[in-house]
Amino acid sequence: MGALIPFTKMHGLGNDYVYVNTMEHPLEDPSSLSIRWSDRHKGIGSDGLILIGSSSKADFSMRIFNADGSEALMCGNGSRCVGRYIHDKGLSDKLELTLETLSGIKRLTLHPGPDGEIESVSVQMGKGVPLPVLRTLGKPQPLVCENLNVCGQTYRATSVDVGNPHLVLFVPDALAAPVAEVGPILENSPMFPHKANIEFAQVLDQRHIRMRVWERGSGITQACGTGACATAVAAAMAGFVRPEACTVIMDGGSLDLSWNPASKEIVMTGPATTVYEGVIDSRVG
Q1: Distance in angstroms (rounded) separating the CA atoms of residues 29 and 10
Q2: Which pTM value belongs to this model?
Q3: What is the C-alpha to C-alpha distance for residues 275 and 12, in angstroms, rounded to an integer?
Q4: Catalytic positions
Q5: CATH code for position 23
Q6: Which residues of 22-34 are buried (b: 16+ CB within 10 A; e: fewer)?
Q7: pLDDT 10s digits, 204-232
Q8: pLDDT: which is higher, 2 or 61
Q9: Is the dihedral angle over the CA atoms 102, 105, 109, 115 positive or is it negative?
Q10: 38-56 pLDDT tens trace
Q11: How many independent structural domains does the chain possess?
Q12: Residue 12 CB: number of other CB atoms within 10 A?
């Protein structure tokens, strides 16, 4: 029998991960564990594994492993859940926290309700800027509201860097978008040497966008925090929405976004939900 590891299953708008406090329970080979534990038939079932640890640069650190074992730079939904985890487990009583990630230090603001329970978490996600992509000829250049042909269809596309790579496709109907068909093709496109997350965005009005997502390393997910940020930034750059206040509606729920065109800084606010807790044998799967 392997070591028994306590875990917490949490989700942000249906974007679900397994959370482990590695300050108390260090994990060997988290990449393999993420593959095994994320299996929805033979493991816990999740979009991946998130490790909460100590940091010399911030209050805590976060590492994210996708369901395929690849390590992600950042996860907006995951960072909100980490904030709630830290509060609920009594690891800190601060409502303002800093979190070290592979895409830099993120600042979290926890918003408790009247009963003291955390109702939502705001994350200062860093900058949202155009992402240079590899073209057929010449040096990498951003796509900003340009036509992109995929599988016989033409999309208005914008590449965005929010600490990890995204490609936002503007579509007339997000629910009818061929996410499962086009998503993996673009995720693995030569334009993105390290792959990319692909968003299919339908602008409803100047404050609302309906979006579906194909996440790098995980496939279709209920929600993607960095994907919502990239979508809001792309739509604001195109003049489709107001940058100071935009709601991105995903399959799992909605996130409120604010982007400052001058500083390029993004603030994301949304819920974080605990599903259940348990222990798992490190050899399961």
Answers
A1: 21
A2: 0.90
A3: 10
A4: 75, 224
A5: 3.10.310.10
A6: beeeebeebeebb
A7: 999 999 999 999 999 999 999 999 999 99
A8: 61
A9: positive
A10: 999 999 999 999 999 999 9
A11: 2
A12: 28
- Are 35 and 285 in contact by the 8 Å Cβ rule? The answer is yes
d(CA 139, CA 235): 25
Instruction: Report how far residue 50's alpha carbon sits from residue 20's, in angstroms, rounded to the nearest whole number.
Output: 7
Single-letter code of the amino acid located at 267: V
Using DSSP's 3-state secondary structure scheme, residue 238 falls into coil
Residues 133 and 236 in one domain: yes
Torsion of CA 127, 100, 17, 163, to 10 degrees: 20
Neighbour count for residue 112 (Cβ, 10 Å): 12
Residue 116 shares a structural domain with residue 171: no
Whether residue 128 contacts residue 233, with contact meaning beta carbons closer than 8 Å, is answered with yes
Q: Which domain holds residue 108?
A: 4-125+271-281
Mean pLDDT along residues 65-72: 95
What distance in Å separates the CA atoms of residue 26 and residue 30, rounded to the nearest whole number?
9
β-strands 208-215, 197-205 pairing = antiparallel
Query: b/e string for 68-105 if b means 16 or more Cβ within 10 A?
Result: ebbebbbbbbbbbbbbbbbbeeebeeeeebbbbbebee
Residues 220 and 244 in one domain: yes
